[in-house]
Design brief:
InterPro entries (chains A, B): AceGlu_kinase-like_sf (IPR036393), ACT-like_dom_sf (IPR045865), ACT_Aspartokinase (IPR054352), ACT_dom (IPR002912), AKii-LysC-BS (IPR041740), Asp/Glu/Uridylate_kinase (IPR001048), Asp_kin_monofn (IPR005260), Asp_kinase (IPR001341)
Family (chains A, B): Belongs to the aspartokinase family.
Strand content of chain A: 25-35%
Largest sheet of chain A: 8 strands, mixed
Oligomer: homodimer
Pfam family, one (chains A, B): ACT
Largest interface: A-B, 37 and 37 residues
Structural class of chain A: alpha/beta
Protein name (chains A, B): Aspartokinase
Keywords (chains A, B): Amino-acid biosynthesis, ATP-binding, Diaminopimelate biosynthesis, Kinase, Lysine biosynthesis, Nucleotide-binding, Transferase
Chain lengths: ~425, ~425
């Protein structure tokens, strides 16, 4: 008998009818003889509706009260899903985060899970119930209600799977697996059978919104076998695990892109020790998430450097920079909006030199100029203008031999390496 | 410095704008120097909407899951109200029932409060916060989420007032106090300055829906001073307390009516010991609330008796009677629907004989026949046909000198006694 954690996102339970289909799917799993723990998100637009309600009342609501408000969304889901399962003649018990023993750090809005006490879930399973746990939420040691932030339900599912030592954690979503790139952009995108945690992590961070990065980190840390699959079909999904099997000749596993990127450049910064720490420390203190940072060299004791932030943070970032000009002197700032980050990801890169050069070549071959570059062990990212993103991704997809038809491999990647 | 519990019902916080007005009202109280604990119900139709959602999924949902579902309504209210108070520049902390230390018996759907641990509320008050508690809900000792049933938020407020030893518990509602009868029926209905717990209890049970009977029982038991007042005006409300001051010459404090009553008569029941206990025990086991029971005598070892139930329970009650005919033999049953119970209530009745007779006289004076009668220390109830209820109430209101104009007292009640 296996112990399976199944996680369903908000769109999978967005309507009464979908809720019923999810219930049937859960019951089918139970009828296979498995012990089943289910994690659910808030239905459809519930969370956004609650946020709108809050903003109607207070444009700047306290984080503690937002957590009180938003956690109701998942509580509604778990109760209704339990009812749907009872309707099918099976018994289910729903639990909020605090009831399920999910203890978080004392932060509101994006708390990290500190501990899970799974006794109550185990005893419900022992009594033969299907257990349904509200995703995205927990409680602090002091009994305050917290949320795990966006994508938190994935994290709940993986953390529960780890605490329960589940055989597998299945993430049901509206796509049927992880693709080599967005199939809406590249028609011949291929569904991957397997992918490693690290690769998935890079893809997740890069805007492949299927799995939340924190959930993948958790899975990697606790070695939880993750399966990403569709809640609407019975297709096999993608298995995310420690060492994914490499397909012959495939160095790059996937291509991801992230929209709404802004570049900010700070020119003529005094090159004294600690200047970068002060500047990026100040940005971090204001909650601004800085992605790529590039510094090209020092001239006459002054440095120019550039970094990227989301377009939503651009104005705030410039304000912060203006505010610290007295402590961190610089000549000027410029910025550019409407950019996109395109990244290639693959654990095979480490042992295959020339992958980055091949990327630059593919991008220039479609006449697009690269504005910034950043590399890591298993990833190369380029910042380009938004309007070129689709043709760039298509070119990269072909260049790295990812196109799904067999003929795509003729004279494939090895030639280009 | 006083400690005040303020309770706001669902219609008082039904819209963003109303929520804002309630927040202002709470802040005003705090600015008077009081320590303020607020109890709120679910906004407007939230509870009914959630019930509809549940019924869409499962027409017969488990009570445990209904409690999980419905408690989200109040949790949304408390979070939003706390935000509205923050918006006014004051600090508020919201708490669910379990966070507020409200422990109930282990029953779902209509749990009774077993205990309240008010430490957390006290420490929030000590830190200078306004405390906002979700009404209608609690947790069992085992950590199951429970609800107190309809009207439960009143009970939460009174129970908290008792546990916190509050100076007063103010129930804000959409009427500005307790009236001698429904002002929509009798224009010259008078608002009462004071009323005793017992009188209020009779009125509450009799369909004067302003306060839930259980809340009044709680208030009586713990001697909590209750004030019923409007959330929309600053008018003084009605004080409910142990011994209400008697107005000169007023024996009957109020007149209440209850619609949708059905009478069931059971004829030719074997008059053996225990027969009534068996019959009404069976009805109670099926959750049928029997109100008035009348037995007129025994003839030839057989008895006829009649009782009233709500029209919604009528068919079920007849089914139960049919089901127990083997153990409790009787000849036949009849029933009548579309009845109303009209009651006069007043603590002064005890020492004023003839009050009942005066009631029968007033009813017959408008040509209405009485179908059943039931009396208690402070109440007389008559069952009449629904179509006559308004003229009967008006006649009784005048007969007992309750009309609000001064001239109503000319030749007032004493003459009629």
């Amino acid at each position: 008998m296996s112990l399976i954690v199944m996680k369903f996102g908000g769109s999978s339970v967005g309507t009464t009818e979908r809720m019923g289909r999810v219930a049937q799917r859960i019951v089918d799993k139970k009828l296979q003889g498995d012990r089943v723990v289910v994690v659910v998100s808030a239905m459809g637009d519930t969370t956004d509706d609650l946020i709108d309600k809050a903003n109607d009342i207070n444009a700047n609501p306290p984080a503690r009260e937002m957590d009180m408000l938003l956690t109701t969304g998942e509580q509604i889901s778990v109760a209704l899903l339990a009812m749907a399962i009872h309707k099918l003649g099976h018994s289910a018990k729903s639990y909020t985060g605090w009831q399920a023993g999910i203890v978080t750090e004392p932060t509101h809005g994006k708390a990290k899970i500190a501990d899970i006490s799974p006794e109550r879930i185990f005893s419900s399973l022992d009594e033969g119930h299907i257990v349904i746990v509200a995703g995205f939420q927990g409680r602090t040691e002091d009994g305050e209600i917290t949320t795990l932030g966006r994508g938190g339900s994935d994290t709940t599912a993986v953390a529960l799977a780890a605490a329960l030592k589940a055989d597998v954690c299945e993430i049901y979503t509206d796509v049927d697996g992880i693709y080599s790139t967005d199939p809406r952009v590249v028609k011949c995108a291929r569904k991957l059978d397997e992918i490693s945690y690290d690769e998935m992590l890079e893809l997740a961070h890069l805007g492949a919104a299927v799995l939340h990065p924190r959930a993948v980190e958790y899975a990697k840390h606790y070695k939880v076998n993750l399966v990403v699959r569709s809640s609407f079909t019975n297709n096999e999904g993608t298995l995310v695990r420690e060492e994914a099997q490499m397909e012959q000749g495939i160095v790059v596993r996937g291509i991801a892109s992230e929209k709404n990127v802004a570049r900010i450049s700070v020119m003529g910064v005094e090159d004294v020790p600690g200047v970068l720490a002060k500047m990026f420390g100040a940005l971090a203190d204001h909650g601004i998430d800085v992605d790529i940072i590039v510094q090209s060299g020092v001239q006459d004791g002054k440095a120019d450097f550039s970094f990227t932030v989301s377009m939503a943070d651009r104005a705030k970032a410039l304000d912060v920079l203006a505010g610290i000009k007295a402590q961190v002197p610089y000549r000027d700032t410029t910025y550019e909006e409407g950019l996109v980050k395109v990244s290639i990801v693959g654990a095979g890169m480490v042992s295959n030199p020339g992958v980055a050069a091949q990327m630059f070549e593919a991008i220039s071959s479609v006449g697009v100029s690269i504005k910034m570059v950043s590399t890591s062990e298993i990833k190369v990212s380029c910042i380009i203008a938004a309007e070129s993103v689709q043709e760039v991704i298509r070119a990269l997809h072909t260049a790295y031999g990812l196109d799904t038809t067999d003929t795509a491999f003729v004279g494939g990647p090895s030639e280009r390496r």
